Amino acid sequence: MERRAYYRNGVLPWLLIGPQLILVLVFFYWPTSQALYWAFTLEQPWGGGNSWIWFDNFLAIFRDSDYWTTVARSAFYALCTTGLSMAVALFLACFVDRSLKGTKIFQSVYVWPYAIAAPAAGVAFRFIFAPQSGIIGSINQIWPGIWDPSTNGMHALAMIIICHAWLGIGYNFIFFLAALQMIPRSITEAGAMDGARPVRRMFDLQLPLIAPTVFFLLIMNLISSFTDSFGLIDTMTEGGPVGSTEVMVYKIYFDGFKSLDYSGAAAQSIVLMLLVIALTFVQFKWVEKRVHYN
Amino acid sequence: MTNIKLLTAASSLTLLALATPALAQTKFEFWYGLSGDLSERVQDMCKGFNESQADYEIVCVSQDNYDANLQNTIAAYRANKQPTVTQIFDAGTLDLMLSGAYVPVRQLMEENGYQIDWDNYLSGIASYFSTSKGEMLSLPFNNSTAVIYYNTDALEKVGFEGTPKTWEEVETVARAMKDAGYECPIAFDPSGAWQWFEQFSAIHNQPIATKGNGFGGLDAEMVVSQGKFVDQLTWIKKMYDEGIIVHKSKDAGETANDAFVNGKCQITSSSIADHGTFGKQAADGVHWTDAMLPIWAGTERTNSLVGGASLWTLKGKSEEEYKGAAAFFNYLAQPEQAQTWSTITGYVPVTMAGFEAMKANGFYDEAPYKGREVAIESLTFTPPTENSRGIRLGSYASIRAEMVKTMQDVLFNDRPVLEALQAFDAKGNEILRRFEQTYKGAQLP
User: Which residue among A137, A150, A153 sits closest to B247, beta carbon to beta carbon?
Assistant: First the structure.
């Protein structure tokens, strides 16, 4: 039985959703349309004039091999961050779900990292990972030169990935824990009675049953690692050394705000936006319907 | 943060406005990109100006840093809410010049009846903020140049009298320091492309780009891989590999400046504006001095480049506001103002008269100000040449960032120097062509 409420008055619904619509228009569609316009023009920063150049901005960035390196790096970054963050969060959630001693404390403790703003975490991690003075840097006392994110690009990228993953653990943990606790106890108990050990139960029972959550988190994490890395990178490495931590979103910031190439940055953000739209589309239209075990 | 500051500033202004009886005062805004102690000094200056006369009231707003100030000024200009006066740093200068969004300072002062002796500005400073024909467009405000700093105890320990004048001598003392057990003879931060690359090119009279570093037109091309900087970077790489030059940076855990004031590194290069900071921060028992940047033996020294920012008057304001701006600029140009500003900040006096007055007062004779005259000597060593009057290249922030990457690539990834610099030139040319296309048909003033 489906029940629906109808408004007889045609104006009222519009009035009710009006404030929200205006907000979305002003803060989302208006800037996006501006960016779209700039992406097809060469915009002078002080507004002295611009010229319509069709797809030249896009061709320019697609021809630039440095840009493709940045795209590949962003993809690598997104996969590593997502994988690491989700794996650790799932691991922790499984333990907390088993109602061992102190579960209540861990439930809240593991969420804390999510409450820390990325730039603040970035500054803290910069000190922790600093090769010449940080805590992690002290392993250089034992093996000189083994850890140096200030000169070694791989180290720097690894450092940012670890920090980003760490920040995301709290968020993932909450979702995983909630999903695990939604699973009827009878199912796991039945598994246990049939002799399945916890690890086996996790892979054969729990994981398939929380697949929708896993998929949701996968998409959210991928999107977040494409778009939210700015705060960390800006405070920790500023894209260096040798550009090895320059991901798409940081390059947009640098080209747009530091070197005032508004059009180039606009074209890049359109590309990034399409990527995020594509990911969201995949989530809503395609896979979400297929991961339910019903 | 900024919002709260703005709010406090706004509310205190409202209070002020309520407290003072209504006068026929013209209010105008000045946005600047300094924070902390320097911002306080600017506020003092604004207060001084407001108290010195009754016709105008300047409202000074800090935007935290140069970048933020540039971005906010642009956004405000596009929304027609710009301040009358704004402070723009070197890398943002060219875009503003081409935009036509400003009133040239010379015109502003003439129209409002102020006589300014433009020839009195230090030549190296004036040329940076002038058209290729020599007309000043903005008022030099906080300016500096790069110098080299030495730990005098370390120099003494290796038996060197005075300070090294050439890179050969620097190498000799640095090697001797290494042998004497100093772990870090020279501190080097690749992000300091300004002192290690741009200043090197200027004092050795080497072009960075054709057309007089871009002064002659937007079609300039990069020529770094064809000049002396190839040898210089090769030398830096060699010293780095031998452990004589040591990498110090924010992300390594300690900046070059910190390593120097703590006595860990014995030689570093930085802005003269750090002279005051070093004096305050130097650890107990660390003695130091500064000198002009070294040159290679057998080369002629040219003047060094000016760094820092200048004040621009923006278009679209009322006659009265321009009168106020001109009065403010006139106030800044008074010798006593120039001296106070230079004393409290470490920036150089921008006029010859200001410098002479300070010299006559014995300002430079004693610590903590002794040593700051080196900057003036360096800036005025020769009349500016095509290669040392400034850099006028589009999207220069990007080109500078490419140089930082190039130096890191050579040092950390062993990329061959010549190949790296050729790639740098190619990348720089791409950036320049894109800029040229954005300002198609525009003429450099």
Answer: A150
The CATH classification number of B2-144+306-360 equals: 3.40.190.10
Report the residue count for chain A.
294
CATH superfamily of B146-304+393-438: Periplasmic binding protein-like II (3.40.190.10)
CATH of the domain at A146: 1.10.3720.10
pLDDT of B4 reads: 54
Q: What is the pLDDT of residue B24?
A: 63
Numbered ranges of CATH 3.40.190.10 in chain B: 2-144+306-360, 146-304+393-438
Task: Please count the helices (runs of H) and the strands (runs of E) in chain A.
Answer: 15, 2
User: Could you list the residue range(s) of the whole structural domain that residue A104 is in?
Assistant: 65-290
Which stretches of chain B score pLDDT less than 70? 1-24
Q: Is the residue at A3 inside a domain?
A: no
Q: Kindly state the tokens that stand for B327.
A: 């009065």
In a domain, A238, yes or no: yes
What ipTM was estimated for this complex? 0.85
- The predicted-structure confidence for B73-116, as pLDDT tens digits, reads as follows 999 999 999 999 999 998 888 989 998 899 999 999 999 999 88
User: What mean pLDDT, rounded, does chain A reach?
Assistant: 89
Write the pLDDT tens digit of every residue in A235-285. Answer: 999 987 999 999 999 999 999 988 889 999 999 999 999 999 998 888 777
- The 3-state DSSP class for residue A289 equals helix
Cβ neighbours of B74 in A, within 8 Å: 45-47, 260
Cross-chain CB nearest to A130 (options B253, B396, B431): B253
Highest mean pLDDT among A50-59, A191-200, B179-188, B342-351: B179-188
Does A246 map to a domain?
yes
- The whole-number pLDDT of residue B1 equals 44
Could you give the angle at the alpha carbon of B260 between the alpha carbons of B255 and B265, nearest 5°? Answer: 100
Q: Determine the pLDDT at residue A285.
A: 78
Distance from CA of B358 to the nearest CA of A (A): 37
Whether A171 is in a domain gets the answer: yes
**What distance in Å separates the CA atoms of residue B368 and residue B343, rounded to the nearest whole number?**
10
Residue A292 pLDDT:
63
A127: closest CA of chain B, how far (Å): 7
Q: How many domains does chain A have?
A: 1
B438–A263 C-beta distance less than 8 A:
yes
Å from A259 to nearest chain B CA? Answer: 5
